[in-house]
Write a structure and sequence with these properties.
Order of helices and strands: EEEHEEHEHHHHEHEHEEHH
Strand content: 25-35%
Distance between the termini: 34 Å
CATH architecture of the largest domain: 3-Layer(aba) Sandwich
Largest sheet: 6 strands, mixed
Radius of gyration: 17 Å
Number of helices: 10
Number of domains: 2
Structural class: alpha/beta
Shape: globular
CATH superfamily of the largest domain: P-loop containing nucleotide triphosphate hydrolases
CATH class of the largest domain: Alpha Beta
Bound molecules: adenosine-5'-triphosphate
Length: 235
């Protein structure tokens, strides 16, 4: 479904990605794990077109998307849930969700997707007329995921969904991520610092260090890998 081939991405003179190649197959949950500053967010930003690569190629559903506008990439079927949620704090829950459907004009489909996200996260239905900024951190993460789903993506990019949330809330959100993958047939690319959690829900994983992929394997193998255990699982 998605492939990155030898992607190099820069912020000015700073090289953040140094030849990243990876693949995501339709229906998978893939996780990218690594330390702070390894380049995980930049990988997502390169895919979504917000920080386009300088060289290399990104293909989605057989088409090159390497230097295409982010809004076009959303309309092709890729939505990103950014690190730190980035919901619109002064808009209501419903208005935030409407923003997610900004590029669509199929009123019936939008209505059924709204029902779908309210079914996933009933608390959002209860709070539909409340300003996004008044929600708890966990609810804001639910809103950010739901807003991305309102674009009806085929590939959902999730950046650190567990960041700053209490363990019980994280557990709930990860259950929903699995459910979205299973029931809605949405392919998921999950960036996480909580490697243990991420590898437990993912089918396959990649490990990133200093802008390079250093390991690629099934999630089970990575969980059992001694180097991964030592560096990322605290075992
Ligand atoms: P984190 O878990 O902290 O978000 P990460 O693995 O997602 O880390 P990135 O945010 O992709 O890492 O950062 C990769 C490298 O690019 C780091 O060296 C970082 O300092 C640098 N970087 C990231 N954003 C910018 C920016 N806007 N301007 C300059 N350098 C940046």
């Amino acid at each position: 479904m998605l492939s990155l081939v030898d992607v190099h991405t820069y912020y000015g003179n700073i090289q953040a990605l140094k030849g990243v190649s990876l693949e995501v197959k339709e229906g998978e949950i893939i996780t990218l794990i690594g330390a702070n500053g390894a380049g995980k967010t930049t990988t997502l930003m390169s895919i979504s077109g917000i920080v386009p690569p300088r060289t290399g190629e990104i293909r989605f559903l057989e088409q090159p998307i390497t230097r295409i506008n982010p809004n076009k990439i959303v309309s092709m079927g890729i939505s990103q849930v950014p690190e730190g949620r980035r919901i619109f704090p002064y808009l209501t829950v419903l208005e935030n969700l409407d923003m997610g459907a900004f590029l669509r004009n199929d009123a019936e489909g939008i209505k059924s997707d709204l029902d779908y996200v309210f079914n996933l996260f009933p608390i959002l239905a209860e709070r539909r007329n409340q300003a996004g900024g008044t929600l708890s951190g966990g609810e804001q993460q639910m809103l950010a995921i739901s807003r991305a789903l309102m674009a009806r993506p085929r590939l959902l990019l999730l950046d650190e969904p567990s960041l700053g949330l209490a363990p019980l809330v994280v557990k709930r959100i990860f259950e929903i991520i699995k459910k979205i993958n299973r029931e809605n047939k949405t392919t998921i690319f999950l960036v996480e610092q909580n490697a243990n959690l991420a590898l437990k829900v993912a089918h396959r994983g990649y490990v990133m260090e200093n802008g390079e992929i250093t390991l690629a394997d099934s999630a089970d193998h990575l969980l059992a890998n001694e180097a991964v255990k030592k560096a990322y699982l605290g075992i």
